[in-house]
Amino acid sequence: MLNRLIHVSMLALIGSVALAAEAQVQRTPWGTPEFSGVWSNASLTQLTRDRGVDKLVVTEDEAQEIIAARGGLRADKTWNKAQYSNPEAGAPEKGDDDFGVKGYDSFWLASGDTFARVKGELRSSYIVDPPSGQAPYIDPVKVQKEQRQRASDYALGNADYDGPEATTIAERCLIGFSNTGGPGMLSAGYNNNYQFVQTQDHLMILVEMAHDARIIPIFDTAQRARASHKPAAITPWLGDSVAWWEGDTLVAETTGVNEKQGSVSAFRISPTGKVTERFTRLNNTEVFYEFIVDDPVYYTKPWKAELSFHPQSRVYEYACHEGNYGLEGILLGARLNERKK
Q1: Which among 29, 152, 207, 256 counts the fewest CB atoms within 10 Å?
Q2: Among 256, 312, 315, 309, which Cα is nearest to 280's?
Q3: Which residues pair with 292 in a beta bridge?
């Protein structure tokens, strides 16, 4: 009996030590949590909650049911060579199965198999506040109309194609689509890896989608950080970010998001809006990431989103500019249409 008690006690002690080791995060030589490494936020969770879903945390079965109800193109693990679109066959006829805008065969998608796992929970939306999981737009109908119009123009070829500058910033490979680069770094259909490189006074985030790099200076106080924002006239891609430490959490504040980026990102943001991001290293396998959007131009109140980054092996090249033959084809097609008219 005594031996059994000793054995059980030893197992409990070993388990406690293992949990403590998992919870203890790696630290830098200067004492802050270490974020350097390669991470991924790939998931099938969307910024806003699906229609008819009334709770944030779901089971795996519930997640798969919601995902299946969406339909659309998803990663296909049963892909084989016969599923290739034939590049020699010419354009499909209207009404054919292949007709329509399909950028990729499903084999190339890498958005994960299920919803985002945050602190051990499967989340049905990135937005956690408001509790509805919806962004509190002042005029949601107007935003929906703008989004539908952009999608329609793109799909039907009705957009302004006078020159390369008239196309969207994603088509020109200027920054990644789906707001992967932030502020408010969200996942996309593929290339969801990030490399964090941390020094004592900077955090650099290399974004796989699409070769963006955020270089965020870190200051010793929030007051000094905010005083170091660029003039309002300067509105760079991904905004103007500064950071400081609050305990073991790195806080980054971004203002001055370029209007062109803000109008086509996963959520609207104006140059006068503010996004506050918080990075917390929970353990060796999770960086908890949250951001708050405060922009009275578009929203009735600030709103908050949460997700997590998990370890990944490497960042892959995204040769978007080098392989951007589509833009040349778009402009050539526009000139051909003009000659026909």
Answers
A1: 29
A2: 309
A3: 276, 304
pLDDT of 79 over the 90 cut: no
188: number of Cβ within 10 Å: 20
Give residue-wise pLDDT tens across range 291-333: 999 999 999 999 999 999 999 999 998 888 777 788 888 889 8
Do 124 and 49 meet the contact criterion of CB atoms below 8 Å apart?
yes
Report phi then psi at 235, rounded to 5: -125, 85
Q: Is residue 115 classed exposed, middle or buried when 0-12, 13-18 and 19+ CB atoms within 10 A define those classes?
A: buried
DSSP assigned state of 299: B
Q: What is the pTM of this model?
A: 0.84
Q: What is the DSSP string of 125-137?
A: BSEEESTTSS--B
Per-residue tokens: 51:
């229609």
pLDDT tier, 21 (very low <50, low <70, confident <90, very high otherwise): very low
Strand-pairing partners, residue 273, are none
- Rg value, the chain, Cα: 23
Residue 290 contacts residue 246 (beta carbons within 8 Å): no
CA distance 51 to 66: 9
DSSP of 329-340 = HHHHHHHHHHHH
